[in-house]
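quick one: zinc ion bound model?
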Amino acid sequence: MDIITVRGIVLREFPVFENDKYIHVLTQEYGVIEILVKGGQKLGSKNAGGTQLFSYSRLSLRTGKGKYYLDSSEPIQLFYKLREDLERLSLACYFAEVACYAAGQHEQKEEMMRLFLNTLHFLSNGERSCELLKCIFEMRFMTVIGMMPDIVCCPVCMTYISESMCFDLRTSKLYCSSCYKAGFDGEQIVVSSSVVKALRHIVFADYDRLFNFRLSDKSLKLLGSLTERYLLIHLGREFKTLDFYNSLQ
Ligand SMILES: [Zn+2]
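yep, here:
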């Protein structure tokens, strides 16, 4: 058995045996890993804070044969305000389910951690709306795992921006209105130039600016339906946590 130390965010917890629990943790070092927490179900256990859902913690682990066992934990940040608001909590659960499903298979672990921590920060402190955070997380997540949409310009005529453009969810391309001649089959979305600018911002902006933009309610709604459908189509599955979040709206 080796002893390692990781920093990670608890994405999921579930009980096993009489007193123990498993946690799934997004780490910078190893992607998403499953850790057995001995006594994790006991109230007041010394690891209760550091292993609770959405805590960002320093974890000391014993590892061998691909399994991880918790030795000790020390919370860095708890995002405790998430628990005060069902909508925000359920959105965090959706982000966690998406990350558990797709984040482990990809190399950009450092960026994934950054995206997740930044999103939880704004989700917890309430300084950004759920609608905005959902758009940002969905599209930036897809970008981080290598499914970046091709939105620099129209692939036919190289037009950078026009009053309205058409995003094709399936091919991930953005056409200007004069080049998009094919019939609509429900997998294209016509978007205004402000939605195009917001999309480009989400995909390309540095983290210190990523969460700093505004859109009208109407444009935000359109952007939200685009980013959600894009994620679902390209990950090829549904998420129960998303259905629950949407049922609250
Ligand atoms: Zn064009």
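Strands lie at 2-16, 20-27, 31-37, 56-64, 67-77, 164-168, 173-176, 188-192.
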